[in-house]
Amino acid sequence: MKKLFFTLAIMFAFSAAYSQSTYKSAIGLRFGVPLSVSYKQFISEPGAIEVFAGFRNYSGYGWFNVGGLYQHHKPIESVAGLQWYFGGGAAAYFWNYDFDLPGDDDTNVNLSILLNLGLDYKFESVPLNLSVDWVPGFFIGGYARGFGGGYGALSARYTLK
After folding, report:
1. Distance between CA 88 and CA 62 in Å, rounded?
2. Is the confidence at residue 29, as pLDDT, over 60?
3. Could you write out the DSSP letters of every residue in 108-146?
4. Integer CA distances (angstroms), 100 to 94, 105, 107, 114, 155, in order
5. What is the pTM for the complete model shown?
6. SS3 helix, strand, coil % of the chain, rounded to 5?
7. Most confident of 47-61, 94-108, 134-148
8. Which residues contact 108 (CB under 8 A, 6 or more apart)?
9. pLDDT, position 17
10. Do 71 and 47 touch, CB atoms closer than 8 A?
11. Contact indicator for 58, 65 with CB cutoff of 8 Å
């Protein structure tokens, strides 16, 4: 937690020399399930691609996932820097579990089709982007199957020129 606050303090310290109300790309963390590294790149004025990779470990099982989302942004005119977005994408989940049951596999792979709905805010004078979203999905094969209500995440990213 101290490292996170230190990183944010450094970003704010350098913000005096950096001013932009929009951004083309950003890199940071998705604080959700699982905790993930995130990179977002705008490919057009409303359209962005976000790729992510994360890892989660529980007692007896864990997973690593990689995925990507297309997000279509729409400004909220009453608040500068605030947009809402919707979109979709796909992800792969690589499960590892050990329940010591007869015939139980130790690994498994899921594919998922994802939907995405969220809010995105870019600070005007600070190279920081915050977003909050909901990502429901349909899981195919592997450990989890069928529709999942999805996970939400709060993302904090350093914006790049």
Report:
1. 24
2. yes
3. EEEEEEEEEEEEEEE-SSSSEEEEEEEEEEEEESSSS-E
4. 19, 9, 12, 31, 36
5. 0.79
6. 10, 65, 25
7. 47-61
8. 94, 95, 97, 141, 142, 143
9. 34
10. yes
11. no
C-alpha closest to that of 92 among 106, 115, 111: 111
Task: Write out the two tokens for 97.
Answer: 């579990």
Residues 84-135: tens digit of each pLDDT = 999 999 999 898 876 665 555 566 888 999 999 999 999 999 999 999 999 9
Around Cβ 14, how many Cβ atoms within 10 Å?
A: 11
Asked, as a colleague might, if the bond just before 136 is cis with ω within 30 of 0, I would say no
* Tokens describing residue 14: 């350098």
Residue 88 near residue 69 (C-beta atoms within 8 A)? yes
Fold of 2-160: Porin (2.40.160)
CA distance 68 to 87: 11
Phi/psi at 99 (5° precision): -100, 0
In angstroms, the CA 161 to CA 148 distance is 36
d(CA 144, CA 105): 14
